[in-house]
Amino acid sequence: MVMDWVLQHKWILFFYIVLIAILFIKRKNITRQAKIIIMYRMQFGIKFIERIATRWNNIVRLFGLSGIGFGFAGMIAMSVMLVFAIVQAFTVPDQPSSVTLVLPGMDIPGLGLLSFWYWLLAIFIIAVVHEASHGVVAYAHGLQIKYTGIVLFGPILGAFVEPDEKKLTQADDVVQHSVYAAGAFSNIVLAVVVLLLTTVITVPLQSLFVQPSGFTFDSYLSENLPFAKAGIEPGTTITGINGEKVTNFQQLNDELIRHSPGDSISIQTEDKSYVITLGEHPDAPKRGYLGITKIRNTYEKTYTSTTAHIGNTILEWFNGLQNNGRGFLFWVYVLSLGIGLFNLLPLPIVDGGRMVQIALKRAYGEEKGNNIFGKVSIAFFILLITSMVLPALI
After folding, report:
1. Sheet of strand 156-163: strand arrangement
2. How would residue 179 be classed by pLDDT, with cut points 50, 70 and 90?
3. Residue-wise pLDDT tens digits, 198-218
4. What would the DSSP string read from start to end of 189-213?
């Protein structure tokens, strides 16, 4: 059993072993914060940051200023979301946590399995965009960049750009807010760009190579529910309902809304037809239920050439149409959005915390402002942990 787990996660284990080995070799460049945060400092990418900030100085400054308003608005939105997640845990049965750690190999509720390579490449892109944005905005305001680096918080991998901290704390509040807001703002912009890229370019392009053919599922929710009783095996492609052709699961779902538990419907596959009696939906007792999970739409190829096959394979890696759209671009979008919003929380270890601390010090003075911030950060830390673990406890 242990060996099966090791083989299943071999690339993840290999990556962390190599990373730990590199950090050990370079241990002279490593510092620790709060004993559990490991930081490896270097100067990789600083020249690039300086070139961008110098060439596009006015645009970079405007970007940073735009991020301030977004940062505080996002902070409010995240605060409401955390409270709402806790309320949902009490009011919605079996509701998965709205906040969770995202690590390679995890089967994330509502999102699916995050593969190692998707995670590694997505985190690299997101971290570069996030930290480079901090550095570019800081340098555009005349703040020298001292280091870039890699940070490890337990198994959580990240990056950082370190400007001259003394000069940053002495800068105007607007400059400080601009620098801290730039990272999260850039992640949200990246998420929007990826969403547009997927919607406007990559998915329409792949539609030239494939066409929808129905849907399938990977497992039953129970052996006592309709699909299992009818003997429709997991992996079977469903192509029709009541004699009407379906090309995706949404069409069948729309039909189910019009049926009640106990109604009989016919389900067509590629080579057979089944009559099933609908069960009762656990969240909507008057609605029919199939009893299947891990549902995904299926596609059939419309090409014959090798070149088209290569093109479709590449686009499938980006789009993940055969996996409910859970391709590389989907994970870049989800992780960039999630990391950007998480960084806006008023916690000491993220950018939102620094922004709130600056605002409180301006409003109440340094000593009282820091005291209030300490209480605020503790309150939000409790909210965060509660929203993560409560659904599993109730």
Report:
1. 30-33, 37-42, 145-153, 156-163
2. very high
3. 999 999 999 999 999 888 888
4. HHHHHHHHHIIIIIHHHHTTTEEEE
For residue 220, what are the β-bridge partners? 292
- In angstroms, rounded to a whole number, what is the distance separating the alpha carbons of residues 360 and 276? 62
| Residue carrying the six token digits 């905005």 | 137
- CB-hemisphere CA count at 13 Å for 265? 25
pTM strictly above 0.90: no
Task: Indicate whether 187 pLDDT > 90.
Answer: yes
Q: Which CATH number fits domain 211-300: 3.50.50.60, 2.40.37.10, 2.30.42.10, 1.10.260.40?
A: 2.30.42.10
**Can you tell me the distance from the alpha carbon of 62 to that of 59, in angstroms, rounded to the nearest whole number?**
5
- Round to whole Å and give the CA distance between 337 and 333: 6
**In this model, does residue 62 exceed pLDDT 90?**
yes
Token code pair at residue 84: 């709402």
The stretch 167-190 carries a mean pLDDT of 94
Torsion of the alpha carbons at 181, 200, 317 and 150, rounded to the nearest 10: -10
What are the residue ranges spanned by the domains of the chain? 28-204+334-393, 211-300
pLDDT at position 223 over 70: yes
DSSP label at 271? S
